[in-house]
Design a protein that fits this description.
Blueprint lengths: L2 H15 L3 H4 L4 H5 L2 E5 H5 L10 E2 L4 E6 L3 E5 L2 E5 L3 E5 L5 E5 L5 E6 L17 H4 L5 E3 L2 H18 L6 H17 L13 H15 L15 H8 L3 H12 L3 H19 L4 H7 L5 H12 L3 H6 L6
Antiparallel strand pairs: 1-8, 2-7, 3-6, 3-8, 4-5, 4-7, 6-9
């Protein structure tokens, strides 16, 4: 998903919840972990920009909504009445429109395909059984299921606002929990979809990349840092690896590696007392100057300035 598409979305959302655009869409977030955000529907309803009877078209992201109030959706020419306590899954490949029928309560989260790349074993979200079914994925929940989904969204809100170094790993787990909650409500396919060769290669790349983190001691060092390092480990040509990752994520091998290194650098700067040299050495840089130059490209700040600035929720 492009940053432009997200920016356009948040330009509309920011006035609805009284938050400036930079707080909703941190400039470098998508380069690190894909994109994820979670919202309270009641806050949107209180805005004059959200009114019953106004359609909201699907955009270029995945969306999971817990709707505690009545609404309706138009999907492939059919109008679907959605009763209270429904879990709705939206994908950018299936256009739909949504109309709130009354003041809304509930939550929704947005995420890109890249956000789930580390945890889907090479599958794109659209390859999950939940999105393979021909019917629109909207599920009426029992009171117990609605309470469970509400608790998951509450944990999402809490974790997103925290300064935990690995909060996005937890947020991915919460998204998966919601996906499984929906998947359990539909008939299982005879066989799960088999990942393609490209999907398997993407998954193996992510596994190799993530296996190097987190760094827990200053003596630990990242071994694989370049596209060639990974291609050699995966026994493929570097150009083939780059094409597969570019097709599946929209990003180059070098960009994915750099984003993950920057993510780890931020965690170490924020949550450890390691010196800049120890962090630079652990991440495989020859000296602090090279590390600082790299870090500025991803954070628009020097490592020292990033470490001393006041932490704000992403």
């Amino acid at each position: 998903m492009t940053t432009t598409a997200l920016t356009a979305l948040y330009q509309e959302l920011a006035p609805c919840i009284g938050t400036d655009l930079s707080a909703l869409l941190p400039q470098q977030l998508q380069r690190e972990v894909g994109h994820f955000n979670v919202f309270d529907l009641a806050g949107f309803w209180e805005s004059t920009q959200l009114q019953a009877g106004v359609p909201y078209p699907c955009r270029s992201f995945y969306k999971i909504s817990l709707l505690r109030s009545r609404s309706r959706s138009e999907y492939q020419g059919q109008t679907i009445d959605i009763e209270a306590d429904a879990l709705v899954f939206s994908t950018p490949k299936v256009p739909f429109q949504w109309w709130p029928a009354e003041p809304q309560q509930g939550h929704f989260c947005l995420f890109t395909a890249e956000f789930l790349l580390p945890v889907l074993g090479g599958l794109a979200p659209d390859e999950l059984p939940l999105f393979q079914h021909r019917d629109y994925p909207v599920f009426q929940l029992t009171p117990a299921e609605a309470a469970r989904a509400t608790a998951i969204f509450a944990r999402m809100h809490e974790e997103l606002a925290s300064d935990y170094a690995h909060k996005y790993a937890l947020l991915r787990a919460y998204v998966l929990e919601l996906l499984h909650l929906g998947q359990k409500r539909q008939p299982a396919p005879a066989l799960p979809p088999a990942p393609s060769a490209a999907a398997r290669l993407s998954a193996r790349f992510v596994e190799l990349l993530e296996r190097q983190f987190p760094l827990t001691t200053p003596q630990q060092r990242v071994r694989l840092r370049t596209a060639k390092d990974f291609a050699d480990q995966l026994a493929v040509h570097v150009n083939h690896l780059n094409k597969v990752l570019k097709d599946s994520t929209g990003r180059t091998t070098t960009d994915l590696i750099g984003g993950r290194l920057a993510q780890e650098a931020k965690a170490l700067l924020r949550h450890t007392d390691w010196t800049l040299w120890e962090i630079a050495d652990g991440l495989g840089f020859v000296d602090v100057a090279h590390f600082s130059h790299f870090f500025r490209r991803y954070a628009a700040l020097s490592p020292g300035a990033f470490r001393t600035q006041e932490a704000v929720p992403a």
